[in-house]
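User:
I would dearly like some help making sense of a protein record. Take your time, and here it is.
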Amino acid sequence: MSLVLYNSLTRRKEPFEPISPGRVGMYFCGPTVYSEPHLGHARGPVVFDVLRRWLESEGYAVRLVSNITDVGHLTDDMDAGEDKLLRRAALERLEPMEVAEKYFWAYFDATDRLNVRRPSIVPRATGHITEQIALTERLLELGLAYRRGGSVYFDVSAYEPYGELSGRNPDDLVEGTRIEVRDEKDDPRDFALWKEAEPQHIMRWPSPWGEGFPGWHLECSVMSTKYLGDRFDIHGGGLDLIFPHHECELAQARAAGMPFANTWIHWNMLTLEGEKMAKSKDHFVTLEALFSRYDPLAVRFHLLRSHYRSVSDFSEESLKSSSQGLQRLVDAFSELTRNDDESEGDHQIFAAFRRDFAAAMNDDLNTPKAIAVLFDAVREVHRRLELGAEPGFATAGKAFFAHHLVDVLGVARSDRSADTQADEGLVDGLITMLLEQRHAARLRRDFSAADAIRERLATHGVVVEDTAEGSRWKLRATPAPTE
């Protein structure tokens, strides 16, 4: 295949070649489930969902694994502070697993609304303690880790390639390290594989070194390789995870003899009204709050209008623009569906659009360029339908948009049961009847009655357009944002 992806490990675009012909194994770091899912949780699932859909459309079988961190993620990523989940449990006066379960489902409810397909496997850190202990023991045996009391640390000085993913010089990482972190570690750059649980620490498991809990970085190395093998195709995460999380993941896996991921994909951050989101400054928005004002599919579409390696900004103006843009695409799809005469045949114009769309997607998943191709197709659809398109044009156009808009980008849905189609037939007949009444009112110059029918239809999402050939209608698929 001709897919090219930017590999963070090599810092260049590379042709993507799966390890096993016809099969792709992918892993991306899921959330730490200690609070309501927010806008920052949306981009990764959407990016990997589109990548998965594109690979599958090209004939590949894809296994997508995304973890859930429900223990071990401390407030300071460099092995200090409280466990984020424990702190939230104390705040809400719940058991830690109650907190994890609550926000686990909140996260997947939100991604469902974004039309993100569930991963093939969703492993939890607490369900893989045995494997994490085994990897820690392996690194101790190899002389790449050491024990300090009930804790075990990875020895960065014993692994020369450390820093290969982030591009950081390990010697420079000493600067700025906090004094209290240096006390127990041999080297401030070292990171925890296993942490001794203090007396008040609730989440704890028995280990050869006493009761404790796994390090945050260890979890992903174990869960990715357990379900994808010691060497797999793609590992992903946010740009902020390159260091220390992904650097440490890569180091401990390769030090233990696992080749680990061939390609590393990192998506850039999201900003809110031009500023970086920060929970500490209360400058963020939960997905629930966002969905109360905008169609989740419009939010998904907005995420895809920026390349995944570029910053994506969310503002009232940009979201309204995305909502309107998506509406244009859905309207064209609906218009083609209504004009579909089920005639056989393809049209060269859609073949050209398919080639352009594929070229964009194969160029490091360039969704903005792919979406631009769809808008080009919309203009052509309007032009030809107004002129009276030849038989088969609408059929070909409907298939084109169904594949690219629904199947690949996932910004529209096509789950139409027989009952749904029957209901649509009823709606179509009722609207047609109302438009006939409106036309009769206009003929007798009763414009107030005609306007009243049009306004009532508009309140139910039916937009009426008067043309030289008569009145046309369409459904507003994505409701306008509330003020």
